[in-house]
From TrEMBL:
It is found in: Periplasm. It is an enzyme of class 3 (hydrolase). Pfam families: Lactamase_B (PF00753). This is beta-lactamase.
Length: 262
């Protein structure tokens, strides 16, 4: 099925994919809650409709001296509930996302998946567990979460080997191998051909790999290629720290990671 793009904003240097359509208006909502850190106002949580039944949630954290740093996740509607891909930075933002799904979509979050053990993906686990959300992550992610002072997910996805996949809530979850982190996984929403690459995929045409503190620099490029090959039909790619784009950011990430390998 060809994707329907609603509310996707691309960097000015990127070109829209020829197969995408734009026959509906942007549907974006922002919360009204803000906080202040070192004189910089933290941006509110944002919600953007990507396609029918698929929403991007974006939380922000003020990190001096760079200012607001975004982190993306997804809300995916099902019949009478929704599933969440990743928390925001903290419990307050994540609770707001859960409330928005319940009050605006009328589809409470029932389950969630977490793409690796960093605070921008698992910083709001308490908020999910307080609402009875069934949380899922790989065994490696759960182990690393505990080591890093984060709450692990309640349930385990069987993704031990590179290239292993599981079908979860109508989504395909792949462990492509270590990249940004040893445990990073990607999630493909096949109905609208949307690939959530998380922190393994770098935004835009950047030349920076960003935070490499827990990275597998020897395999990152190969991991991106594994994800690229696994989902050849996915035309909308979501990085954690930038705007949705096309498959060009897969190619770019593999390219900028490759010098670290060679």
């Amino acid at each position: 099925m060809r994707p329907t793009l609603i509310g996707i904003f691309l960097f000015s240097s990127l070109v829209f994919l020829s197969g995408c359509t734009h026959n509906a208006p942007v549907f974006s909502q922002q919360s009204e809650q803000t906080t202040q850190t070192d004189g910089v106002e933290e941006k509110p949580v944002e919600f953007v409709k990507l396609a029918t039944g698929v929403w991007l949630h974006t939380g922000y954290k003020v990190v001096p001296p760079w200012g607001n740093i975004r982190t993306n996740g997804l809300i995916i509607e099902r019949n009478d509930y929704s599933v969440l891909i990743d928390t925001a930075w903290n419990d307050a933002q994540t609770a707001e996302i859960v409330s928005w799904a319940k009050d605006t979509l009328k589809k409470p979050v029932r389950a969630s998946i977490h793409t690796h053990a960093h605070s921008d993906k698992m910083g709001g686990m308490d908020a999910l567990h307080a609402q009875g959300v069934e949380t899922y992550a790989s065994a490696l992610t759960n182990r690393l979460a505990i080591e890093r002072g984060l709450l692990p997910a309640k349930n385990v996805l069987e993704l031990a080997d590179i290239g292993s996949q599981v079908e979860w809530e109508g989504l395909t979850v792949l462990y492509p191998g270590g990249g940004h982190s040893e445990d990073n996984i990607v999630v493909n929403e096949g109905e609208n051909n949307i690939l959530f690459g998380g922190c393994m995929i770098r935004p835009g045409m950047t030349t920076s790999l960003g935070n490499t503190g827990d990275a597998n620099l020897g395999y990152w490029s190969r991991a991106v290629e594994n994800a690229t090959n696994a989902f050849p039909d996915s035309q909308i790619v979501i990085p954690s720290h930038g705007k949705p784009a096309g498959r060009e950011i897969l190619k770019n990430t593999a390219y900028i990671a490759r010098p670290k390998v060679d």
